Amino acid sequence: MLILGIDTSCDDTSASVVEDGKRILSNIVSSQEDIHKKYGGIVPELASRRHIEMIWPVVDEALKSANTKLDELSAVAVCYGPGLIGSLLVGCSFAKSVCFSKGIPLVSVNHIEGHIFSSFLDEGGPLVDKGFAQGAPEFPFISLIVSGGHTSLYRVDGFRRYKELGRTRDDAAGEAYDKVAKLLGLGYPGGPAIDRLAHEGNPAAVDFPRAYLPGDFDFSFSGLKTAVLNFLRTKVGSRKPNAELRTLNSELVKDICASFQQAVVDVLVRKTEWAAKEEKVRRVTISGGVGANSALRRELALMAKKGGLQLFIPPAALCTDNAAMIAAAAYHHFITHDIAGMELNPVAYLPL
Ligand code: KG4
Ligand code: ZN
Q: Could you tell me if the CB of 288 is within 6 A of ligand 1?
């Protein structure tokens, strides 16, 4: 069974063909980094315009790389939220018109559900991350979804059986990465740049705060972001630290990156560990762009090994936004006859 997945929820145009909810035949992601970089963040209007230009070429490439045609598809699956409304609209309108004109069933998928199901994709071939659990996780499992727009912990008892244990009360972890990177003049997106520089810095150089918020599984990252800002102000004595950073020696920037990253990773790893313990669940999965972070992957693996937990981490390319995860989740909708109608509309704020 072949499903074409489409994701245009944010700033990447992605299409993928997945067989039986797990085997990736193609997964094309067209990044918009070049157009948003100079603004230091995503400009929604520019994002939706670029999606309009790219949606057909990306879908066409996904079909060709998978050596298939629209007529051979069992369904077309589209992410309908949460996300940027203009961006979502492009994917939804495109998917609806293809399904209407070709008579193909349409499946609608929540973006977060897609991230949860990225762990169900086969990770064979060169993408295998050695040392992590292989194959799809059995239920129940704890899922840490950590991206530019979301930071949540879910307990997953089965398809459609999701319980949110906690979520960020302010910034998402990826958002904190992006904002701190902006302060440091490192460009957008900030996560990969900070991850790279952190390798060469000292994670104990600056003792940034960790908001553990004991008593529940919520997160908070805005205080950490402010702590980095305040630290920079005292160091460079300016209200606009990013403009002054050119004069800061790069060793300090590396130490700030490493210390900031350590504070984020400590909180994410500890709270995931506590959630597994309290829920008495032995399996943990992770997804979302920050799931590509090398320190987070390493420390989660250590935590899992120490605690005897099974850890499922998709390759970095399946943690960041992609359409294969949409097709993977769609498979479960399709086999349970959950088909969307032509009245489908995108929803910017869509709870799971
Ligand atoms: O899941 P995603 O691709 O899009 C959203 O749904 O938000 O996540 C994008 C976020 C950005 O904030 C980006 O800075 C962050 O993921 N990110 C990383 C890394 N790669 C991407 N954060 C930390 N380390 C990374 N290696
Ligand atoms: Zn995402």
A: yes
